[in-house]
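PROTOCOL LOG
Step 1. Enter all chains and additional molecules of the complex.
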Amino acid sequence: MTSGNANANSNGNTDDRLHRLVATVLGVNTTDVTDESSPDTVATWDSLNHLNLIMAVEGEFGIELSPEDAMDMSNVALIRAVLREHGVEV
Amino acid sequence: MTTVTTPATRTLSDLLTTVTEKPGPLEYQAAAREIERYGDRLVPVRIRQLASFTIDPLVPYLRVEAARHGFLADVHLGPFNSINQELIDGSSATHQDAPQIVFVTALLTDVCAPLTDDFLSLDEPALEWLLEDIVATAAESWRQFRRQSPSTLVIANFPLPQDAPLGIYEGMAERSQTWAIRRLNARLADAARGVPGVYILDLERLSTRLGLAACYDRKMWHIARAPLTTAALTALASTQAQFINALLAPRRKCLVLDLDNTLWGGVVGEQGLAGIKIGQTYPGSAFRAFQQTVLSLHRRGVLLAINSKNNLEDVEQVFRQHPDMILKLEHFSAIEANWLDKIDNMRSIAAALNIGLDSLVFFDDSPVECESMRRALPEVLTITAPADSLTYADALLGSGAFERLSLTDEDRRRGELYRRDADRQRAAHSAASVADFLQTLEMSAEIRAVDEFALPRAAELTQKTNQFNLTTRRYTAAQLTDALAAPGTSAFTLRLTDRFGDYGIVGFAIVRWRPPVAVIDTLLLSCRVIGRSAETALLSFLIDEARRNGLEAVEGDFIPTSKNAPAADFFPRHGFTPVADVAGGGAAMWRLQIAGADVSWPACFQRRGSVAAE
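Step 2. Run joint prediction.
Step 3. Record the structure below.
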């Protein structure tokens, strides 16, 4: 529960932190990342970068994901849902 | 938050600092991408990683860690789990790629599953055969590789599995898995010494340092055969980068040290010899520990020098007279303690030692001095001491500046230390009796009136010592100072040395002179030296003092506690007779007539510089 600002209401800004993380890991612009982004829509979202995403999410939000969580995160909206289950509002 | 610099204006050192400040996966991944932009300032190095597992996540970590040493690591991977074929086959991708360094990291479960997964099924001959086979197969592949390639091979040895097959019995079991894996690692090291260009990366030690539970990520292992945590990846990359540096960069030969707030706490020019912080208690003990680290580098062959803004006489006085300095003047090859510019001093040191500036490492607590050194002499590796003196050693050793992969002439001294250690163990085994054993330790005891250097340690001993403590009277440093200021009270410290080292101040006594009687207020020994008859040395000294002062008897009380049984027979053992119960509670007053006293200085102790005794 390291998420500093849990202001889940204001849509535009709250997405930034997760979108920024995904963009950094995948090496794309933040503006290219949406909640619908997935391995099918981003060329660099390969299996290795999926591992990098898991580690980055764990490291960044101070949580430990289960194998099921890790495998379920197949688009940005699902990552957000997993984070929410761990009490992290982004 | 630190100052945000945009990627466009950020320097490489800024970039690396952001990772140091927050060493998370995201920071490594982002920085690894950005490092490319500083390629023109880095030395390219071609690396191949061969592993039995998914080692891909290591790449960004290695790129960042290599950049800290000035290298741009071009890292190529795999192919996955075909280590031996890649090494042996001269037409393999690994050979074609002509890397400068090949890092080989195999999991024991991939090399030999029974050893990790079903260890208890192995009988003695099977185990022996497996160990031999693993080493022989590995060594053969190294030889074949090196016959066909000039590349250096760095082979990771095997960490222990997280859980011991025999549980809590593992530690004492014969032929346990722990024993077998350590034996395997020892044999791998033996084999590696026999093949030029092959080195061992001690992953066992590295994983132990981090903690096995902190190294293995079970989830990532099961979903992706990527078993290493972020912490383990960081440590492995940092160690690989140290190998790259040790193999490819010119050697650093000399450690140049600042003094004030670096080798000791405080400023000797202002606070004086007695005011600086170096000693047995914190914060002085932290600086002592750092000095020990520096001395240990010196014993590995690193030259030492001083570059400090100070009066030379003040500095020499500290080294010559302060009893708690670990480093002595003779350890230093060059000393520049003056009021000149440190940059000029640095040039003088390089000239005096006839080595290049690029052989020097500068360690100073002042960010300003460090920054000006970096600007003026970028060839010198300048390390700024961290704010916390407890982590000085981490900063110095973590730089990897003095890492070497061979033995130097000076390293032979280490052999001497090992020999002495082995001697001690042999002495303990072979000594026929306790008295004989104590004789073999070649102990000497130095008893002296407590002075301003020893007072904090003495007070600490009264606070902490519970076992060999006749009265368990606690004194703060201030109370002790007051007590000693009163007439008729003396206090003495005992410092013990044996042929294995200096234990520092480990005994303490307070005596109140009440003619015709001397009363022992306090007499204690640190638990580290119980059983060496140091208490008899202290008592013998006190009796001599009392005799010299024309007193008739020595008295003392024993106040039993739940912990001080080891001291319970102190008085009767030395011929004291009970005088009276003190206030019930079992505490008793004991008395010894000096005329008839038979307490002599123990034969196993050499007597050293007992100031007040002579």
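Step 4. Note key features.
The longest strand of chain B covers residues 501-514.
Chain B touches chain A at residues 24-26, 29-30, 33, 54, 56-57, 60, 219-220, 222-224, 226, 230 (CB under 8 Å).
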